[in-house]
Amino acid sequence: MDARDFITIGMSAERTLVVPAERTVGHFVPGMPLVFATPMMILEMEMASSDAIRPHLQPGWITVGTEVDIRHLGAALVGAAVRVTGKVVAVERRVIRFEVEAFEGERKIGDGRHARGLVNAETFTKRLAGT
Question: 32 phi and psi, to 5 degrees?
């Protein structure tokens, strides 16, 4: 399957969340502040990117994250509303590349690039299981 047949540059999606204590660095690392953890921001960026293209995938096909190059530019406290976006900027045969951003209100708190690989879910699972 060739992603260039059905994924186009400019496809995008947005996710919003209110930062819960369970997604803060202080939740994972005792003594650290209760601010939105970088890995949780990256997770939201990956999910927004996936959301942008998932409706266009053929049945039985999924995308998996393959690359992240992210800057965490600012903290967001528990209770802050965070908006994350993912936008397709390049499409290769099996790789889709995204620009991602995160905002608290109008303040940018993160940005970068992300790539997702196109895989057949059944084949992928069988290969991981060694069958």
Answer: -90, 160
